Amino acid sequence: MFVLIFVAGVLLAHWYLWSRLVRHTTAPGRARRAMTWGLLVLLLVLVTTFVGTRMGLESWLAWPGYVWLALMFYLVIILAVLEIPRAVVAAFLRRGERGSEPVLVPEPVGVSAGAVGPDGGPAAPEPGAVERAAPMSRRLFLGRTTAAVAGVGALGTVGYGMRSALGDPVIEPVKVTLPKLDPRLGGLRFAVVSDIHLGPLTGIGHTERIVRMINGLQADVVAIVGDLVDGSVAQLGALARPLRHLESRYGAYFVTGNHEYFAPEGPGEWIEELGELGVRSLRNERVEIRHQGAVLDLAGVNDVGGAPTGDGPDFGKALGGRSAEVAAGRSTVLLAHQPIQIDEAARHGVDLQLSGHTHGGQIAPFNLVVGLQQPVVAGLARVNGVQVYVTRGAGFWGPPVRVGAPPEITMLELGS
């Protein structure tokens, strides 16, 4: 269903762009045919990118399609916003027009009106003279102006978004107070990162930069909250190797995201690979973090994307098996990729959930759509009495563009 909706949306977007950027900016002829074919080629490039990334195509084949996807998105958004002012201006122009629209007729420059040549016919233009077109129609002028505004706006927005997505993540300091946290655990620090999305558009430098920035935080715990990869170990294993250099007092932990289940072999190979890199996966389980004589329960559940294959979240397994006395007196931090898992977390007495998945919307105004599916798009919130922090993620999915949602690594500190 998602694929069908996406394909229909892409086709509709290209038809709309043809209507506004080609049909309303050109007269029938060579220029219109050339621009139409150009738009069809861009559509083919986009299709090739989406099919090819599933087949492990090289990154240079993925870049054009993903960049065009972002440009297409913002061209459609800007043109749609301009529809109302464009219609108002068009109405005024129609009222001001008298008779039919002016015809574009070449007019020789340098020839006097009514001049007669030696043979009795119209006089030839003077040497060096050029043809000058009569003024274009008001409708054509409006179409080209609208297209120019949309083009400049889309190019500027995507350029800014690429600089944000490909640059250093923002370090977001966050302090979270947990009412029943043992005071000895006050100041315990988590470096939280999600949605790194190692894939065809990221090189090993992307991973090295994230590891370097996390190590600079000198955190007690590193939490990788899903969507680490967009491919198999065979394709992307080399890009993940810098993770072996992660530094923290009590270790690095990982839970699966929905993208880990997109690989044909599932997340199993990546779980093993991360284990060899020194990153422990919490597969519906928990560990005890002992700090200054006190204990914190750190639990992790699989992503809901694993449910169809029997590898989904099991909160009972991850959070059960504790006596009522222990559960009541010990704070629990849960790693769960999607914020929507907070409902089940609340029923199991979790004090704080750390999530990702949303990318903060990644490209505004898409954040408004994400908010329809997830209870929190980004930042710290309280849902059903449980605090949840949703990081925007350190990478990107699809277009290498982030607008209104810069990449993030979170420095989260617990307080009592």
Automatic annotation (TrEMBL):
Gene3D superfamilies tied to this protein: 3.60.21.10
InterPro entries per UniProt: Calcineurin-like_PHP (IPR004843), Metallo-depent_PP-like (IPR029052), Metallophosphoesterase_sf (IPR051158)
CDD domains, A to Z: MPP_YkuE_C (cd07385)
Keywords: Hydrolase, Membrane, Metal-binding, Transmembrane, Transmembrane helix
Keyword Transcription: no
Ranges that cross the membrane: 6-22, 34-53, 65-85, 141-162
Domain Calcineurin-like phosphoesterase, first and last residues per copy: 188-360
Protein name: Metallophosphoesterase
Organism, as annotated: Nonomuraea antimicrobica
Species classification: Bacteria, Bacillati, Actinomycetota, Actinomycetes, Streptosporangiales
